[in-house]
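The protein record filed below.
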Amino acid sequence: MSTEPAALVHPGFPRFADAAGAVLADLQARVGLRLWMVTRQVGGDQVVLAWRESSDGYGIGDGSVLDWGGSLCAAMVAELGPSIAPRVADVPAFAGAPVRRSAAVEAYVGVPLVEPDGGLFGTLCAFDPEPQPDTLREHEDLVRLQARLLSTVLALELDREVLRRRAEQAEQEATTDALTGVGNRRGWDRVLAAEEARCRRYAHPACVVAVDVDRLKAVNDGQGHFAGDTLLRRCAAVLAGAVRATDHVARLGGDEFAVLAVETDEAGGLVEVERLRAALDAAGVAATVGLGSRTSAGTLELAWQAADADLYRRKRARAG
């Protein structure tokens, strides 16, 4: 008989979502309260990434989008209220919160989840429609420990996502536009699908910038296709040089280009658009630029459509 010790089996959690689900189940079993959630704060939204409810009532599901500004979590993060409130009505910052006008929230637990750089990712939180005994406060250390563990798992997974993005960008060499050296339509579709999956998993914001080279046909007709190709190469080089390393530039065909700006909200997208316009102007490339941002309830495909619509609105306005 072999004297070798049996191999240790450690299944771990393959994804942050699995760890979040296990934490919520454990906390509900130990602490109680009807609804537990892991949420992501994105601008004015609070997006539900994972949830566990002991009975029907709140109507929460994965991907639910709540109002961050009117939430108890926003007040807690701003240190206007405690992490544990057995009786929400006794906390002035919580008692008048807008969320209580649409849902019965009489007890609350919430602690921040932080990103690797220390910034706010979201919250680990719980609610109940009935006031709870003061002994609820005894669970604060447990909840904070679970939140720290989740933040650690999140940091590791986000690091892996950075590596995956780099690998995807390396694979894009096989999906490169031969004329300009940036991504082609096939590569764009692949990158868009991969980033949409991340946006759904982590509630990442993202923007799409559409770029159309002006008067390409006139250049081809008046100066020849070599001049037109030179203009397209110049546009691609300007875009590639102006975006961040994590962003993706593609030529979709003809005079159309697009930029995917990852983890960028609408305000950041506006900054990106102005940077691209300035770079194109400086290089003497006449182009029209449109912006579309992915909303918490939307998709990158819709953001791309919005960017295209914005671009053609601008073209029409200039022509008029």
Q: What stands out?
A: The first strand starts at residue 35 and ends at 42.
